[in-house]
Amino acid sequence: MTARATGDDGEDPRSRIKRLERAASPLDPGPEERDRLMAATHGYARRFLEELPSRLTYGADKRAAPLVRSLEIGEGTHGIEALLERYDESVARPGIAPAHGGHLGYIPGGGLYASALADYVAAVTNEYAGVRFAGPGSVEMENQVLDWMAGLVGYPGGAEGNLASGGSIANLIAIVAAREAAGLEARGVPDAVVYSTSHAHHCIARALRVLGLGETRVHEIPLDERFRLRADALAAAIAEDRGAGLRPWLVIASAGTTDVGAIDPLDPIADIAEAEGVWLHVDAAYGGFFALLESHRAAFAGMERSHSIVLDPHKGLFLPYGVGAVLVREGEWLRRAHAYHAHYMQDAVAEEFERSPADLSPELTKHFRGLRVWLPLLLHGLEPFRACLEEKLELARYFHAEIAARGFEVGPTPELSVATYRWVPDSGDANDFNRALIEHVHRDGRVFLSSTMIDGVFTLRIAVLAFRTHLDTIDLTLRILEDGVAELEAHPERWRRDLEASRA
Ligand SMILES: *Cc1c(COP(=O)(O)O)cnc(C)c1O
User: Fold this and answer.
1) Which one-letter DSSP state was computed for residue 94?
2) Which of 48, 121, 203, 467 is the least crowded, having the fewest Cβ atoms under 10 Å away?
């Protein structure tokens, strides 16, 4: 019999291993401790949601960073209650509260409670959703969700997709598929042309740069009076570029622009893309799920003819941040761009393509995002989603009419749930006035609005998409704007001074 090896300290390996197991045991709490942690977390979530309506939507709190950093990561331990309290004061309160119905800026997100529970279950079970071999159910669930979205878009069988982390990555993945289909190689990039508009989301330009396509030419197509891509100008631009010996390969259309919510004329654009053999990508990150409404099907006509499309469930399905969907009509292009085999994956390699997310995106191991989409859709059914989307459209139209009635200059009647407007003062610079007005709204904090520049004009926006935004939120917003104008007009010297100060 051989002697057991002992360490320097004379401890034998088995007792050393058991000692380490005990030291690591807090990482795997028992049932009572789990209940205690859960009760504290649930208690916090409950208080947060109960207090939310009376909290500010926006607070410019400069203390956030030092507060977060005041707890150091090291050997120390802290109670769950204290940590959640720190979370609330340093994270939940400062900046924008995206779960608040008063969030009416940019494109608001959601935060459905059912999705939060799905994330909890996905994390506790830690299901693997990258490869079918490891997670046949999770992969099938993600594919079911994607097939449902493909059906909504009107894509035929053979479409493939991926649940990415958001719209930006989803758009990037679509462009990879487009590049693959065009057979675009590095030396061809400088002569290749992408067609887009000044209202396309900036993540498209970023994706091109990140993908090493920064040298590709981007031909900006003019917009019509409602800020939609002009199909006649697109046809002319492609003809001109072909004449100059260039290579048109990609058209980017928007179905719901971030700035004003405009839907490009997809059918006429698809006619051109088809005739020219150019990939048509539709960025419907914001607008896509409005296609669930019968009343809006016509506005999206032609999206089924696109080659790829992006929809953001963390916008139009009111989910918490962290999921954007890309769909490719001929899924083969998505697979060709991403599928790989590795020796250490040999057990998982299938004879036939099994529709694993790892073969359709740059990710391998990833969060099981399918569950956070699947659970609320199955729990609630589609009807409340449709009602919520329709309510948001109605609220945007109501706001547009009411703000016009209060003497504001307004943009086009909202096609979706974004409206633009500004106050034109009797004297002085209108851009400065509206800059001061938005700062007034931010200082107030009860609702959050954002602004944009449209053809050099400082323009205020309202974007209604948070599921907790209701009629009283819009009435409050109207009052805040009306009071803001009255106050700024009564004390012009004050806001001019503040504006100067914020510029200095
Ligand atoms: C929000 C948005 C994006 C970017 O999506 P993220 O989920 O924020 O990454 C892209 N395009 C449009 C039209 C958007 O509204």
Assistant:
1) S
2) 121
Do 320 and 448 have their domain in common? no
CA-CA distance, 241 to 227, in Å (whole number)? 23
**Of 323, 349, 380, which marks where a domain is finished?**
380
From 362, 380, 398, give the residue that closes a domain. Answer: 380
pLDDT of residue 23: 97
pLDDT (tens digit per residue) in 254-307 = 999 999 999 999 999 999 999 999 999 999 999 999 999 999 999 999 999 999
pLDDT of 346: 78
The residue segments making up the domain with residue 137 are 119-380
> What is Dmax (Cα atoms) for the chain?
100
The fraction of the chain above a pLDDT of 70, given in percent, is 98
Ligand 1 proximity of 135 Cβ (cutoff 6 Å): no
Residue 21 lies in a domain: no
Average of pLDDT values for 220-243?
98
**CATH number for the domain that contains residue 172:** 3.40.640.10
Residues 179, 314, single domain; the answer is: yes
The 3-state DSSP class for residue 311 equals strand
CB atoms closer than 10 angstroms to residue 207: 21
Q: Please give the structure tokens belonging to residue 379.
A: 């729990």
Atom number in ligand 1 closest to CA 324: 7
Indicate whether residue 408 lines ligand 1 (CB < 6 A).
no
Ligand 1 pocket check: which of 283, 290, 300 to mutate, most ligand atoms within 8 Å of Cβ? Answer: 283
Nearest to 284 by CA among 319, 267, 308: 308
> Does any ligand 1 atom lie closer than 6 A to the CB of residue 110?
no
Can you tell me the distance from the alpha carbon of 211 to that of 171, in angstroms, rounded to the nearest whole number? 11
Counting the structural domains of the chain, the total is 2
Is residue 99 a part of any domain in this protein? no
Residue 168 CA, closest ligand 1 atom number: 9
Say whether both 170 and 226 belong to one domain.
yes
Of 265, 258, 307, the closest CA to residue 287 belongs to 258
Over residues 423-436, the mean pLDDT reads 95
- Measured CA angle at 208 (ends 202, 214), to 5 deg: 110
If asked whether residues 291 and 421 sit together in one domain, one would say: no
Phi, psi of 350 (to 5 degrees): -100, 160
> 167 CB under 6 A from ligand 1?
yes
Flag whether 73 is in a domain: no
